[in-house]
Design brief:
Elements (H helix, E strand, L loop, with lengths): L6 E5 L12 H13 L4 E3 L12 H15 L4 E5 L5 H13 L4 E5 L8 H12 L6 E5 L1 H4 L5 H10 L3 E6 L4 H10 L5 E4 L5 H6 L4 E4 L6 H12 L3 H17 L7 H9 L16 H13 L2
Parallel strand pairs: 1-2, 1-8, 2-3, 3-4, 4-5, 5-6, 6-7, 7-8
Amino acid sequence: MRHIQPGTYTALVTPFTTQGDLDKAAFIKLIQHQINSKITGLVPCGTTGESVTLTHQERQWIIQATVEHAQGKALVLAGTGSNSTAQTIAYTKEAEQLGANGALIVTPYYNKPTQEGLYQHYKKISEHTKLPIILYNVPGRTGCDLQADTVVRLARDCANIVGIKEAAGLVDRVAELKTRCPDSFLIFSGDDGLALPMITVGAQGLISVASNVVPTKVVQLVNNALKGHLEEAKTQHLQLRALFFALFVESNPIPVKKAMSLLGLIEDTVRLPLWQANDKTTLLIQDALKKLH
């Protein structure tokens, strides 16, 4: 089994041209920028990457390009979740064939499965791949909460379910998982603004949106927190706080794409039904970016 490591992973945006097509050149530049910033890993085709609007051919190209350009320099944790178990299995098997190091699998959205349904969903997926699986709990977006009891069952019963991206906004959930799951089970903060407190109670890293914008600064924050250099980490957290806030005043990835466009990294284009950031959000982002320079 390929190994997933603690650290900072970037939930990559998917750049589009102003015509709405996949911007391949911008995506490759984004990967190179991330690698140069010493990122631990990259997450292509996650929810930040607007995965639900990508065609099958686009998904293939994005994962393949990430694997090719990150080879030996950063881990690739492909987003393969959907609200269909069969479709998720297909996406995960394809990511394995394309050379990903692991799969990040969001809980099914809209269906609102029971906890037993969630257990059976992930168990079935784990039986069809050798990839390490990172669960992804983000109830504010999916409408269902992957509760601690279910996570503990999955960690115990499925050898290749090796961790979770926890984005329920509950620091104590991380503490509970840390005390109940095997020591080898990895817990990643799914919220940039909660990375520091979550690491202090047992999280081993961050799967970040903000690192699309300022990867070096986010990597430094996480590394200091993981090393126990909490005063340095606190100073860095406070410096980044305004950006962390601004990136979520509208639905992700609307603000992060605006921020990246202001820095000249990508075009400010999202796919419908998302729409570009409003003027108030843009001003917040501009102010936050100014504070970092």
